[in-house]
Amino acid sequence: MTAPAPLRGPAAAIAYLLASARANGMRVNRTKLTKLLYLADLRAVEHGLPPGSGVEWRWRYYGPHSLRLKEVERDLRDAGHVEVEGTVDPFTGNCEYTIHLTDAPQTVVDAAFTRIVDSVLDDFGDWSASQLRDLTYQTPPMQEAVRHGRREVRLDLSGGAPYPDLGPGLAHLRDWAARNPLPADEPGGVDDLAEELDYLAEDRADATRRLMEE
């Protein structure tokens, strides 16, 4: 029987964090997992390394979050690597989802990042989800996002201003391209294209300026 392929990318980072937390007797729910992984990425960048989670962080859901994490959790659950247990707090009525690693999947994670994950767990693994949420709001990327007052922005883990979201501008350009297809073999098509680009230069510059000012 062929051995399953090792986990890579976000799935590997999450599985490693859960395995390390389990080895240290730490209980991890969704919020706690998210904040610990964010802190690990932030610490990696502070050490001059690339973020090891492989996800994009934005300001949403009470601090830094990535919608990619829910997809990875589903994939890990479908593969039988994790179980998700929901319990309702009798005082608040809120449902807390605890994530349990059910096996020991093989992972491919950068060794430097595993050490960073372990150090983050040593420092914050016993903190509650609400304490971790409050901590992440004190980090430079989140402070910059809050200062700009722009939820959903992509966080710059180096502590700079949030990255401009180019999505709407790119969608507009794609829509224009769909409505203005290039001629296949028309003589002079390249000249027409150059003229069209020159004609739209001012509009493109204005669109770029608006995106950077948002």
Element layout with pairings:
Layout: H1 9-23, H2 30-46, E1 58-59, E2 64-65, H3 68-78, E3 82-88, E4 95-101, H4 111-124, H5 129-137, H6 140-148, H7 167-179, H8 189-213
Antiparallel strand pairs: 1-2, 3-4
Helix pairs in contact: 1-3, 1-4, 2-4, 2-5
- The level of helicity is 40-55%
Query: Helix-strand pattern, N to C?
Result: HHEEHEEHHHHH
How many separate domains?
Answer: 2
Average pLDDT figure: 84
How many strand units? 4
Tally the helices.
8
| Principal-axis shape | globular
How much of the residues is beta strand, in percent?
A: 5-15%
Largest sheet: 2 strands, antiparallel
Output the strand order for the largest sheet.
1-2
Please provide a written account of the structure:
With 214 residues, this protein is mainly alpha-helical. It folds into two domains: 9-148, no CATH class; 167-213, no CATH class. 53% of the residues lie in helices and 8% in strands. The chain has eight helices and four strands; from the N terminus they run ααββαββααααα. Strands 1-2 form a two-stranded antiparallel ribbon. A two-stranded antiparallel sheet has the order 3-4. β1 and β2 (64-65) form a beta hairpin. α1 packs across α4 and α2 packs parallel to α5 (129-137). The protein is globular and about 65 Å long.
